[in-house]
Write a structure and sequence with these properties.
6-stranded antiparallel β-sheet, 1 helix, 7-stranded antiparallel β-sheet, 2 domains, single chain, mainly beta
């Protein structure tokens, strides 16, 4: 194996990640037409509703029973970055924030000291299929920021910087690609300090086209996730789709798409290098802190749940919007 390629591995569910990233789930669900109530116009017989992760008929209901998705659940100690490539996500949280985003939008949420949120996937089209393609990435917080105030931020696709090259396109969600800088991340994020070299790039390479990843800092960890296409050639190594590749960040890396266009997600950053104690939706530094987090959630519910349903969805005909905790409303 070329010494610029550190490892190659198959992608499962979720994808394997490295510090400072904790988790990356890739969701591709071919939902049918909607039933007019934001659920599928399809029989749900034979599904383990409430815990449906089997890809039956091309889609999963996850923890939803009527609308697919993830009803109210808590988080503490890290951030979620949700990229909705296709389809829509309805967000609601214990801060009173809400939104509907999709078709390339990104939501950046700092759980910090504790928040509940729900993420439902409304099937808004009743006349055609409702394809969902979505990434959820968990980015760790250092100990000094694990109890930061929760923060909710939308990065609308119209505003996200896109580098259009002759043979490829790079959507810069975090960090920078050459001289093109991403929108500002959440203020207490590990990504907020440029010295941490955090970057998230969603890249499309045309058939037989190439993209060259720029050099990064020696301490940075960079992983390339090849999630759609036929084959890519990384340096002299041909790699089929559905594989992750950890590459040496201090060298330029050329990637060529063979057979079909290639879609690639790149996650990179300098490691936080602190102990990680995880239990479900809580990520702290010690087991004692996990016990405290669970006890606090049992007693405070992290502010409670201000919505009528734990699987809250917005009006059928509602467009993309964000309502912030201070009441500010943005409609797209």
């Amino acid at each position: 194996m070329n010494d610029k390629i550190k490892q190659i591995f198959e992608l499962g569910f979720p994808w394997r990640t490295q510090d400072p990233f904790l988790f990356c789930a890739y969701h591709l669900d071919q939902y049918p037409k909607g039933d007019g109530k934001l659920g599928p116009a399809d029989s749900l017989d034979g599904r383990n509703l409430g815990n449906d992760f089997q890809l039956k008929d091309g889609y999963r209901m996850y923890h939803g029973t009527n609308v697919p998705g993830f009803p109210a659940h808590p988080h503490r100690g890290f951030e979620t970055i949700t990229i909705a490539n296709k389809g829509y996500c309805d967000h609601s949280d214990s801060l009173g924030a809400a939104g509907r985003f999709g078709e390339g939008d990104v939501q950046w949420m700092t759980a910090g000291s504790g928040v509940q949120h729900s993420e439902m996937f409304p099937l808004i089209y009743t006349d055609k299929e409702n394809t969902l393609e979505l990434f959820q990435i968990w980015l760790n917080l250092p100990a000094k920021n694990k109890f930061a105030d929760p923060h909710f931020k939308m990065l609308w696709h119209e505003d996200i910087p896109v580098l259009k090259l002759e043979q490829s396109t790079v959507t810069v969600i975090a960090g920078n690609f050459g001289s093109l800088n991403a929108l500002a991340p959440a203020p207490n994020s590990w990504a907020a300090d440029a010295n941490n070299d955090v970057a998230i790039w969603n890249i499309n390479v045309r058939t037989n086209g190439t993209i060259t990843l720029p050099k990064a800092n020696n301490r940075t960890i960079r992983t390339v996730y090849f999630y759609e296409g036929d084959t890519i050639k990384v340096l002299d190594k041909e790699i089929p789709s559905n594989h992750g590749i950890e590459v040496t960040p201090s060298e330029e890396i050329e990637i060529k798409a063979l057979g079909k266009p290639a879609n690639i997600l790149v996650l990179q950053g300098q490691p936080i290098n602190e102990p990680v104690a995880k239990y479900g939706p809580f990520v702290m530094n010690t087991d004692e802190e996990l016990e405290i987090a669970m006890n606090e959630f049992r007693t405070t519910r992290f502010g409670g749940w201000p919505w009528r349903h734990i699987d809250n969805v917005h009006e059928n005909n509602r467009g993309r919007f964000a309502k912030y905790p201070d009441g500010t409303l943005i409609e797209k």
